[in-house]
């Protein structure tokens, strides 16, 4: 897990910035209101709709198909939440990252898969949030439980077998930073147009 530890350390600042604008505190202290939750779902819809294909295509292009089974599409769950909340599809006007190397793709995948790890805790907090009690379910956050936590150590071991040099790690860091910046910027940006 050396590569994951390296990426965690090197992206810690961006991770904290992202959690701050993605309402992490409000989720955990159960002060998140319905409008904020609607915004979270809309933004996650946009992010996953763009990041899942970007990463999957990058894995295929760079012949990293050993990693594709870790990428569990979550768009079905997001569509269910968007339908429940009657959300239009929103464009957030941000530029998608260009993950040019295999190492950058692996760094981006590290961020997306890592974001799933907190989903079970978030799901529990949402279920206990009295301001959201009118909602029958939280499909996106609930779908985190469908992906076994044991996959994360396996993913980290595979990262260690691919990211062998300082140059490899530096490339992965660039990809992780690019995806963190995208997520941060989407959560910090108000919606500007409906599709």
What does this structure look like?
The chain is built from ten helices and two strands, in the order αααααβαααααβ. The chain has a two-stranded antiparallel sheet. It is an all-alpha fold and 195 residues long. The chain is globular, with a radius of gyration of 16 Å. The longest helix is centred in the first third of the chain and has 28 residues, at 34-61. The protein has one domain: Up-down Bundle (Heme Oxygenase, Chain A). It has helices at 2-10, 12-21, 24-28, 34-61, 75-85, 102-117, 119-128, 139-142, 151-162, 166-188; strands spanning 90-91, 193-194. It is 66% helix and 2% strand. It holds the Pfam family Heme_oxygenase. GO terms for molecular function: heme oxygenase (decyclizing) activity. This is Heme oxygenase.
What order do the strands of the largest sheet run in, or round the barrel if closed? Answer: 1-2
List unreliable stretches of 5+ residues: none
| Biggest sheet statistics | 2 strands, antiparallel
CATH hierarchy: architecture:
Up-down Bundle
Mean pLDDT score: 92
- CATH fold group: Heme Oxygenase, Chain A
CATH superfamily: Heme oxygenase-like
CATH class: Mainly Alpha
Radius of gyration: 16 Å
- Looking at how many chains there are and whether they match, the oligomeric state comes to single chain
Q: Which structural class is indicated by helix and strand composition? A: mainly alpha
Tally of contiguous helical segments: 10
- Beta fraction: under 5%
- Give the helix level as a range of percent: 55-70%
Distance between the termini: 41 Å
GO molecular function: heme oxygenase (decyclizing) activity
Pfam families: Heme_oxygenase (PF01126)
GO biological process, one term: heme oxidation
InterPro entries: Haem_Oase-like, Haem_Oase-like_multi-hlx
């Amino acid at each position: 897990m050396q590569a994951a530890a390296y990426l965690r350390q090197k992206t810690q600042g961006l991770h904290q910035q992202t959690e701050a604008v993605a309402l992490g505190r409000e989720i955990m202290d159960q002060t998140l209101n319905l409008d904020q939750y609607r915004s979270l779902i809309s933004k996650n819809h946009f992010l996953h709709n763009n990041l899942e294909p970007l990463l999957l295509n990058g894995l295929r292009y760079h012949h990293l198909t050993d990693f594709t089974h870790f990428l569990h599409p979550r768009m079905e769950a997001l569509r269910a939440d968007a339908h429940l909340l009657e959300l239009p599809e929103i464009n957030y006007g941000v530029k998608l990252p260009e993950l040019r190397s295999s190492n950058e793709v692996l760094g981006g995948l590290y961020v997306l898969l890592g974001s799933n790890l907190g989903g079970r805790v978030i799901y529990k907090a949402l279920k206990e949030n009295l301001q959201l009690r009118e909602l029958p379910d939280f499909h996106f956050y609930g779908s985190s439980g469908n992906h076994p936590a044991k996959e994360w150590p396996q993913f980290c071991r595979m990262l260690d077998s691919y990211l062998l040099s300082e140059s490899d790690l530096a490339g992965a860091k660039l990809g992780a930073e690019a995806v963190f910046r995208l997520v941060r910027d989407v959560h910090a940006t108000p919606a500007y147009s409906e599709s």
